[in-house]
Amino acid sequence: MLLELTNPQIQQAIIALSALSAIGVMLVVGWPWIARDRLAERIQTIEGNRHQLRRREQSGSGAVGGARSLLFAKKPNRVFVGIVERLSLARLTDESGATQLLRMAGLHGRAPLVAYLASRLIAAIAMPGIAFAYLVFVLKPDLSLPLMAVVASAGAAIGFALPKLYVRNLISKRHNSLRRSWPDALDLLLICVESGMSSESAFRKVAEEIGTQSKELAEEMSLTTAELAYLSDRRQAYENLGTRTGLDSIKATVIGLIQSEKYGTSLGQTLRVLAKESRDFRMAAAEKKAASLPPKLTVPMILFFLPVLFAVIATPAVLQAIGAS
């Protein structure tokens, strides 16, 4: 009697266990299709975006490709090329230093370098003639020949230095624009990175958005995006950004990007700290500039405001004294 009761139960248990085993086997086999690997899909998406960005850069389309083509499409002037090559100005001067100086001014390619080297020679030759003509035909002084030679030498030195002064003026204006906009660019870069965008996509997006505030910074970030697509070493692209700009705040960000690429540290936390430091530095620079205004205004007030004030105060008394006499 007991065996008759337990036999169906054993059979039902065996059937249930077989069904569960079949379901388990089906789940094990079909699990990769049921629960997909989101990390692998994300990596494939990033790689696809990277290849798509590289193709866009190579075809010259888009904002970054257009900026790059505009920067490097200019050809050197034939006259300047002839002067530089025949006189070997590139060998006589520090070509690497001149190239770095022009890059910091936003002048890229060979055409600005050739024009810079040739203009220094042309100005050094032309300025003594201009100074001599001005002295002889305008001032007409009675100067001796040695003194005229000194004036001509001074004119040559001034002419040789004028192109460099012009380039340094461009660098100063460019640095001011980069300092003002860099904290905002870091905030945008932080938002893009924390939203899951890759470095290339983040730099490209920030370059498109920051252009209305600073064209210079948009140009630098566009060049960095292009170099990230072209160069095999991403570290070199980041280092080129710090070298081109020459600003300590941007170099600090470059170090953070390189460390994040090398050691896998949190890029978002690094960008957050750097953005705060950049804003504090910008505020400190503004406060320093505001604190320097009173000493600068002292001399203009003494020369222009105080005489007028004394005249307004003393004129009625002088008129009354003249009328009483």
Automatic annotation (TrEMBL):
Keywords: Cell membrane, Membrane, Transmembrane, Transmembrane helix. The chain crosses the membrane at residues 12-34, 113-137, 143-167, 297-319. Residues 186-313 form the Type II secretion system protein GspF domain. It is found in: Cell membrane. InterPro entries: T2SS_GspF_dom (IPR018076). One of its GO terms (cellular component) is plasma membrane. PANTHER family: INTEGRAL MEMBRANE PROTEIN-RELATED (PTHR35007), PILUS ASSEMBLE PROTEIN (PTHR35007:SF2). This is Tight adherence protein C.
